[in-house]
Structures are given as C-alpha cells and as structure tokens.
Amino acid sequence: MSFTIAIDGPAASGKGTIARQLAARFGFAHLDTGLLYRAVGRKMLEGVDPVEAAQALDVTSLDAGELRGPDVAQAASKVAALPAVRAALVDVQRAFSRRSGGAVLDGRDIGTVICPEAEAKLFVIASAEVRAERRWRELVAAGHAVTLDEVLADVLVRDARDMNRADAPLKPAEDATTLDTSKMAIEDAVAEAVAIVNAARGSG
C-alpha cells in the first residue's frame, strides 16, 4: 500500500528537514527533489546541456554534500525554469512517489504537478529574512565566504524565479495545509507536520 506526503515551499523554509523527519517517523522513503535540479544545474555549470543532463540523471548516485553550494543553487533554479528539464524529471519523481511502503517528496511543485493525488500535502513557508539567516548559517558552517545580505538577495532572486516561471510555478496546492515555520523551533514544526499527516491517515 502506498501513501504519499507532498511537501512544497521556498528555499530554507524547513521543508527538507520536516520531510526527512516525517520519513523517519513513518518509515517512508524520502526524495529531496531539489537535489535532482541541483545535479542538473551542476552539470550545466560543467558545460553539459541541461536537458541531456536531466535525461541521463541517475537518482541513486546523488551526493547532497556536493550539491549545496550557492553557485549550484542558482544554477538549479535556472534549469528548473526549463520545461524540457522538468518534463524529463517528472516520471522519475512520480514513480518514486507511489512506491510501496510510502514516500515523502519535498520540492516546489510536488503537490501541484508531480503528485496532485498525494494523500497529505504541506506547504512550508517562512519569511525571507528568516530563511536567509538559516541558509547563511548553513553556508558559513560549510566554509562558504558569504554575507547575510548576499544570501538574502539570493533568496529573493530564487523566490521570484520560482514563483513567476511559466511552467510549474511555486504555489500551494488548493488542498495543502500551510505551515509557517518563521517563529517555530524545528521540533514544533515537525510535531505539527506529524499531526497533519496523522489526520490525513485517519489516525488522529
């Protein structure tokens, strides 16, 4: 029996952390779909055609650690705006979402495009300033020399690109539950997400 949890939201909203913890909590498989676009974006930076990179992508060999830099993030946002790239990655994501035993997918168009029939849908948000500070702390901890202002500018550019692209723009599904993590500890955000999923599963 399959059960799909679709989690969408902008960069650094907390959706990835929530998705990983939900997957662990319920024993579901997890796919960070943003890594697919980051992998394609990195290939583009290396000179590979992004559509060809998407068509040849091996989802079993994604290394999150190698795909977290700001240059790759910007490249990912650019290739994600290409309809041919998105089309190449749709089937991979949909197949993952219906695997036996349950699945959690997080990204920007999971509840609206990839898994419109998902049993549970969350749209995770936070203010741009809060998200920028979270991402800045991550990047500094990883050794990147960036300022908070630079990261905030990057977040705003990515938001605009993701929300305004013609193909699969970032927006909540009509039946998604919005979770604002701006002022929430991650433990509280996860607890709220667990409650939302339990309600969808009919287990209170």
Describe this structure in words.
The chain has 204 residues and is α/β, with parallel strands linked by helices. It is 53% helix and 12% strand. It contains 9 helices and 5 strands; from the N terminus they run E-H-E-H-H-H-H-E-H-E-H-H-E-H. The chain has a 5-stranded parallel beta sheet, sandwiched between helices. Helix 1 packs across helix 9, helix 2 crosses helix 4 and helix 7 crosses helix 8. The longest helix has 17 residues. The radius of gyration is 16 Å and the shape is globular. The mean pLDDT is 93.
Structural class: alpha/beta
Helical stretch tally: 9
Mean pLDDT: 93
Poorly predicted runs are none
Q: Work out the oligomeric state of the chains in this entry.
A: single chain
Beta content comes to 5-15%
Gyration radius, in Å: 16 Å
Q: How would a textbook summarize the main sheet?
A: 5 strands, parallel
The number of distinct β-strands equals 5
Strand line-up across the major sheet:
2-3-1-4-5
Keyword list:
globular; 204 residues; single chain; 53% helix; 5-stranded parallel beta sheet; 9 helices; 5 strands; alpha/beta
Secondary structure blueprint with pairings:
Layout: E1 4-8, H1 15-26, E2 29-32, H2 33-45, H3 50-55, H4 70-80, H5 83-97, E3 103-107, H6 110-114, E4 120-125, H7 128-141, H8 148-164, E5 177-180, H9 186-201
Parallel strand pairs: 1-3, 1-4, 2-3, 4-5
Helix pairs in contact: 1-9, 2-4, 4-8, 7-8
Give the structure's gist in a few sentences.
The protein is of the alpha/beta class and 204 residues long. The protein has helices at 15-26, 33-45, 50-55, 70-80, 83-97, 110-114, 128-141, 148-164, 186-201; strands at 4-8, 29-32, 103-107, 120-125, 177-180.
